[in-house]
Amino acid sequence: MDTPVADAPEVAAPRPAVVGVGVGAVLLVGGLAGAVVSLVLLLDKLALLADPTFVPSCSIDPVLSCGTIMRTWQASLLGFPNPVIGLATFPVAAALGALVLGGVTLPRWVWWSLQAGTTAGLLFVHWLIVQSLAVIHALCPWCMVAWVAVIAMFWFVTVHNLRAGTLGGEPATLRRHGWGLAAWYLAIVVAIVATFPAWAAGLVGL
């Protein structure tokens, strides 16, 4: 008589590795923040066009002065207000971030597009930073929110693409990459303080 063979214990299937959670969160949060500030800036710009005496919501003092920046040609580089670019691109980034967080696997071409888009945004943002500090001599608080968002999105998209090998070559192992991003932000803060030393000293009560 055959001895019944006990059923082998079921082995739980390995859980899939969580890929892209960080980049998904940054795209979602950065995209939403960028879209909101772009909308606010556009509304203020339209109000300023309708009434030259209008004071934008982010004009706080002579340095933090969106109104000063909105009156320059740099604020409409392509012939229309720069916030229009943000309203056309930030929601796309937020939607893709939501898909990544929802577990959707984005095709390679989407990651290529994100890389190209965030790189273009990065170059534009740094051009605006140079113009604000060296030419216009004023800062736009809402614009700085967009700066932070674009730099973070570029950084996380690039790190993700390098880790996944999306950009070609073998996947790279990148750890503690957040230090690089923090150093990048610190460099911008240092540039702002160096440009407006008296204003920065006043902020900290010196």
From TrEMBL:
Cellular compartments annotated: Membrane
Any Pfam family the entry gives: VKOR
Main location: membrane
Keywords for this protein: Disulfide bond, Membrane, Oxidoreductase, Quinone, Redox-active center, Transmembrane, Transmembrane helix
TM helices/strands, residue ranges: 17-43, 84-104, 110-130, 142-162, 182-204
Vitamin K epoxide reductase domain ranges (all copies): 20-161
InterPro entries xref list: VKOR, VKOR_Actinobacteria, VKOR_sf
Membrane topology reported for the UniProt record: Multi-pass membrane protein
Family from the record: Belongs to the VKOR family.
The protein, known as: Vitamin K epoxide reductase family protein
Lineage, highest ranks first: Bacteria, Bacillati, Actinomycetota, Actinomycetes, Pseudonocardiales
